[in-house]
Amino acid sequence: MKRTLLLSTMLLACWWDAAAQDTLHLSRSQCEAIFLKENLSLLAEQLNIPMAEAEVKQASLWPNPQFTLDEINLWATRHQTGGQEVSPPIIGNWGRNQQYAISIEQLLYTAGKRKKLMALQSVGVEKAQQFFNELLRNLKLELRRQITELQYLQLSEHAFQTQLQSVNDLLGAYERQLEKGNIAATEVTRLQSKQFELQKSLHELKQQNNETQKELKQLLHLPPQTFLQLSSDQFERAITNNSIPTYQTLVTEASTHRPDYKLALLEKRYSEKAYSYEKALRTPDVTIKGSYDRNGSTMLNFVGFGASIDLPFFNKNQGNIQKAKLGIQQAKTLSQQSLHQMETEVAASYKSLLNAYTFHINIDAAYLQKLDQSLEAYTRNFLSRNINMLEYLDFLESYQQNKLSILGASRDLNNAVEEVNYVSGTELMP
């Protein structure tokens, strides 16, 4: 039993190691290409467009004619015919004195109901397209945020691993000096404490990395065991004052391209078409028919024509017409709300972009490289006893905070740019 358990554990470990090695290296643009091709939510929503087009096709069809075969007698007795031959046979000797009736009916729409229903369903096609665009807009924002977050976490991990490597090297050297009795044990303890602190921070970053990986793999529909390694390309946005659009430009672009605002306007059109269709329904439709009756009247072979129509004395579709009319007022109100929401979101995202850009440009572009060089210099000086333990640990703390602040500034600027693209409904800032 123990051997079986040990073997199972070893196999599981081997499988996990193999799965962990399944690393996929991607850039931001490659992630977006996979997303557009593989995202299941997009593929499912896209099917709503041909489904809506099928509804237009269905609305264009006329109702089928109705065929009725009725009043068939399987036999005729002498009592029924009075001993007389009422009618000759139909085929051979079959059908003598037989009665039956045949009729065909066709419903005819009036008041242009069919065209008005087609116009109503055509607006439904446009709504389906805008629903797809809205889903794409929201999922793109989520995708790009997750990509930026994963880039930030991986770059942060690299920074912590650099610090941890420096501390590990120092700790190894100090442990050898402690064995020789050249330094106090407290100095080794301080370094071990810093080592544990960095290991804990790395552990937390890896946990966040794992959560972000999960979200990204769902968006990209990647195998669960895949490990994503993103390049740092496009994490640093090359933005200048000239590339930032004005507030009025954002409002204009948003009112032209945003799917949710277009949907609000389409709801108004849809309500107007629905009102027109409901008003047409108060006009009764006409049913025309032709019939043939054998032995059913004084005539042996009777052919007749007729028509039927509802008499709109009680039901003139008043309730549905009133409901559709109120729907127009409701759609107008909601479109005004959508416009106000759009303008509010544009103003907020524009201010956030300016704040993120201002903070980002105030950071010296070479400062990040200087930090890494300073870490190497401080490590050498500490080994050479040119600085003490407290100075070295203070620098490590400062290095960590500054590194994360600089990376965070790039992350915030990235997110602000994507938010501007999101509220404008177009790729205004690439």
From TrEMBL:
Residues 1-20 form the signal peptide. It comes from the Bacteria. SUPFAM superfamilies: Outer membrane efflux proteins (OEP). It comes from Niabella yanshanensis. The keyword ATP-binding does not apply. Pfam families: OEP. This is TolC family protein. Residues 188-222 form a coiled coil. InterPro entries: MdtP/NodT-like, OMP_efflux. The keyword Coiled coil applies. Belongs to the outer membrane factor (OMF) (TC 1.B.17) family. Keywords: Coiled coil, Signal. Gene3D superfamilies: Outer membrane efflux proteins (OEP).
